[in-house]
Amino acid sequence: MSDAAAVARREKVLGAIRTRLGNSGGKREAVEARIAGQARHLVPERSRQDASGLKALFAAQLRAGNATVVESASEADLPRIVASYLRGQNLPLTLRAGEDAWLRGIDWSREPAISITKGPAVPADEVGLTHAVAAVAETGTLVLASGPENPVTVTFLPETSIIVVRAADLVGPYEAAFDLIRERYGHGTMPRTLNLVSGPSRTADVGGRLVTGAHGPRRLCVVIVG
Amino acid sequence: MTPETKPPRVALFVTCLVDLMRPSVGFAAVKLLEQAGCTVEVPMAQTCCGQPAYNSGDKTTAEALARQTIAACEGYDYVVAPSGSCAGMLKSHYAKLLASDAAWQGRANAFAAKVHELISFLVDVRGMTGVSQTLIARATYHDSCSGLRELGIKDQPRKLLASVEGLELVEMADCEVCCGFGGTFAVKYADISNAMVEKKCANIGESGADLVLAGDLGCLMNMAGKLRRDGSTAKARHIAEVLAGELSDPPIAAAD
Amino acid sequence: MDVTAHAFKSNVKAALKDMQLQRALSGLPTGLVAQRTAAKAKLPEFEALRDVGRDIKNHTLAHLDLYLEAWETKATAAGAKVHWAPTAADAREIVAGICRDANARLVTKGKSMVSEEIALNAHLEAQGLEVVETDLGEYLVQIRHETPSHIIAPAIHLTEAQIEADFRRQHTHLPKDRPLDEPVKIVSEAREILREKFIKADVGITGANFLIAETGSSIIVTNEGNGDLTQSLAKVHVVVTSIDKVVPTLEDVTTLLRLLARSATGQEFSVYTTFSTGPRRAEDADGPEEYHVVLLDNGRSALLDTPFREVLRCIRCGACMNHCPVYGAVGGHAYGWVYPGPIGAVINPALIGLEEASHLPNASTFCGRCESVCPMKIPLPGLMREWRQQEFAAGGGTRMARSALKAWSYLARRPRLYHLASRLGIAALSALGRTRGAFRSLPLAGGWTRHRDLAAPQGRTFQQLWAEHKRGVPR
Q1: Residue among B19, B181, B192 minimizing CB distance to C12
Q2: CB-based touch C/A (3+ pairs, under 8 A)
């Protein structure tokens, strides 16, 4: 297929739209202003709570979606919490994780049985460990940005996903999480994937009956730190 | 007379089905409207609200019937119909049909403001809170689609039914789901219509009711016809008949 | 796919006799319908959000060319290759070309109704590619050589027993005596089988629920995680989507996402909502090397200056079909083309022609339940009526229906004549059936009396009795 044909197809679609809409000249500024304005619409009241209320809502929503939620009072305590969860599930203490600086800064040697392999996940990995950039209390949703720090395969390939989020990064509505993303990546710029995760994978395609554990992780453990 | 004491003049829009099949519903409506302090008149120049044409895509006939009905009934304080479907047509659709007709647009809007379905008119406009009737029955109420979704009729019929002595109201499952009537749909797509009314009748049966009530004769004829074909003992009546105590005629599709 | 919308009536007959289908459909009221009701009850702002959502889409559609261009600029800057496809054939060939360029043999697919619309699988298979659907419902349908019967629950027409039998027939390399008597075992087996496909796939195709002009992103919403594995593990990620999916900003899409899952499955939020922007970055450890977006028109732009523009707001949640009593009676396949239920009854005539699909907008009681639950407040019954008007104006419909309507209309427009004819007709009809109260059969009323009795009239018309009443004659 030639480039000229591709250009012609593009003009055909856009031309058809313009013809049907009438002249859209002069509206371009309105469109640009709307995109730049990033105005919030109606935001549910439930997302306006103090920190402890948001934490409780976040945890309750995730649990309703069959996730495990545990709190770790401090970063130092995280290895013990992770080890305890994995032992409780009879899972190996071998984890896959990316290059996330904050996760690397944690002293994992406090739990010598834990071993962490760095890099993107491979099919044999049983447990993935990722660090969410933000968490949304509104629906118990974690926000993960892809990149070498937290490769997307680490979140999706292993049967068990452990996602750690700092209590300080817990916000009420999605809009607040998107503002954090804009701060980090710049306005209008996104990581290759931004994954919003609200539980372990599931399906109801067999007879309408809900089964936890479809193609993504069968188990999700969320650790709130701090 | 002061405005407070002068009884409002109500045009009864009989509806074609009540006119043809079950005049007792019309008389029940008149009785209830008079109990609610209204003077009732029945304009002769009315026929049908036009839905059979409107829903068959015949906009020209629908517009003609809209103009005819408006002209016949607009001179009254209110226009009341014992049907959510027909009232919905008069109230919600005439103005849309005539929106591009400059001469009629204003009339259609003014007309729409006067139109009410019977039971909601009694409760919401006339402040009726109950009736003095007795009927020993276990009844279930079917929420007809247009009344429910176009006009918001839900609590009003239940409120008045609660005042009927001896009448126990039991809710059936899916009381808000269509019975499958749909005007010409019942004939054009008879098999689907049948599947829908089968489910409706199963729900009526499971409710344990011996009487099914609704505010629309079309739905009632559909449900009553199916109940009878299935050999069910449950009977069907228009809610106005029960509220007015107009029960001397046999129930719908029942023998003398 | 084969179009059988014209055969709607015979499809209906078959569907009503299909006991497996009827059993599968019987779960809708207590399933998706009840779940949506519960989700709505948990969010007091739900109804207000529907208005906001409608306005967002209306604004976007009114500036559609500009938002698509803005989206394209951002997407291209992030490394996306954007392909515009005026027709289904264009889109198919574009995707096939991408697969050829990638020397692909195996293609995995996440759920995409647009790919169904363009019959993509058959086209790719004809080019020698192996195409594997990875959404479990889509996979179940694919191994039966069927099409989805619902836009979010493709296999909703199948019972567990049918699925078990299909797995035993299809997965012959597994032990014959393995237990598959519970959904969890079926799901596990599918997971194992499809996992291999994800890993080996050369191209991963997904749809898109939304495109965001602000960031140049595409979004998929799933529960199974299959879409993420599809788009992350293959070297090439192709998004097959349509021009109506674009929205201006993250805030805009947030409102629509708040409505989508609640309306669809009654979840507060789907498990996975994934924003994809361009291919993997230089520093990334995983992700696709190429990211293509195919933007399909296929008749959508032609709706923009018609009343049917409103259907372009659709976010494909499926609530209209879940709540539709006609869909609940006959299921999705009876509709005879890609989009079933009320939304299909409005979209299909636009995409495959009114002549082919004329039954669909006619087969509705206008009960209005679809419109009352549509998160985008699309006036579906009104648009079905619009199709009926177009059909009537073009002289469509059966000759008998048209002459009956014409005769009735002649009378209804002449009140005096109408009342006279009513009196005579009712007197005659009443004489036939008064004492029995109803008719079991009646000439010309076969459509009614085939399934139910017809109530006999009381004998005289109300107008007749009222005139007597006014003259003082007791009733």
Answers
A1: B192
A2: yes
Decide if A30 touches C, using CB distance below 8 A: yes
Q: Where in chain C is the domain with CATH 3.40.50.10420?
A: 43-296
Q: Please tell me the pTM assigned to this model.
A: 0.96
Nearest to B192 among C329, C440, C455 (CB): C329
What are the distances in angstroms from CA A128 to CA A75, A163, A219, C92, C132?
Answer: 18, 8, 10, 37, 26
One-letter amino acid of A97: A
Listed in sequence order, the residues at least 6 apart from B66 whose beta carbon sits closer than 8 Å to its beta carbon are B50, B93, B94, B97, B98, B104, B108
C129's CB contacts (< 8 A; 6+ apart) are: C99, C104, C105, C106, C107
Provide the CATH topology of domain B129-243: Rossmann fold (3.40.50)
Chain A residues in contact with C154 by the CB 8 A cut-off are 205
B-C contacts at Cβ under 8 angstroms: 217
Judge: C368–B189 Cβ closer than 8 Å, yes or no: no
B135-159 as b/e, with b when 16 or more CB fall inside 10 Å? bebebbbbbbbbbbbbbebbebbbe
Chain C CB contacts of B22 below 8 Å: 455, 457-458
Local structure of residue B122 (DSSP, 8 states): I
What is the predicted pLDDT for the residue at A203?
Answer: 97
Map out the domains of chain B as residue ranges: 3-124, 129-243
Measured CA to CA, the distance from residue B223 to residue C463 in angstroms comes to 25
Q: Which residues contact C187 (CB under 8 A, 6 or more apart)?
A: A203, A206, A211, A213, A214, C136
- DSSP SS3 for B8: coil
CATH architecture of the domain with range A45-225 = 3-Layer(aba) Sandwich (3.40)
Residue in the structure block whose two tokens are 């399934």: C451
* C270 close contact with A: CB closer than 8 A: yes
* Nearest residue of C to residue B252, measured between CA atoms: C455
- Structural domain spans, chain A: 3-37, 45-225
ipTM above 0.95, yes or no: yes
Burial of residue C145 (CB within 10 Å: 0-12, 13-18, 19+) is exposed
pLDDT in tens, C181-235: 999 999 999 999 999 999 999 999 999 999 999 999 999 999 999 999 999 999 9
Nearest by CB to residue C68, choosing from A14, A205, A206, is A14
Q: In the block, which residue shows the tokens 């907008």? A: C361
B191 → closest Cβ in C16, C325, C392: C16
Distant-in-sequence contacts of C42-47, Cβ < 8 A, 24+ apart: C42/C268, C43/A44, C43/A46, C43/C258, C43/C262, C43/C268, C44/A44, C44/A45, C45/A42, C45/A44, C45/A45, C46/C259, C46/C262
Chain B adjacent subunits, 3+ CB pairs under 8 A: C
Q: Is residue A53 less than 8 Å (CB to CB) from chain C?
A: no
pLDDT digits (tens, 9 = 90+) for A78-119: 999 999 999 999 999 999 999 999 999 999 999 999 999 999
CATH topology of domain B3-124: Glutathione S-transferase Yfyf (Class Pi); Chain A, domain 2 (1.20.1050)
Q: β-strands A141-145, A193-197: how paired? A: antiparallel
Secondary structure of residue B170 in the 3-state scheme: coil
Q: Any idea which fold C43-296 has?
A: Rossmann fold (3.40.50)
Chains B and C touch (3+ CB pairs under 8 A): yes
- Is B3-124's fold the same as B129-243's? no
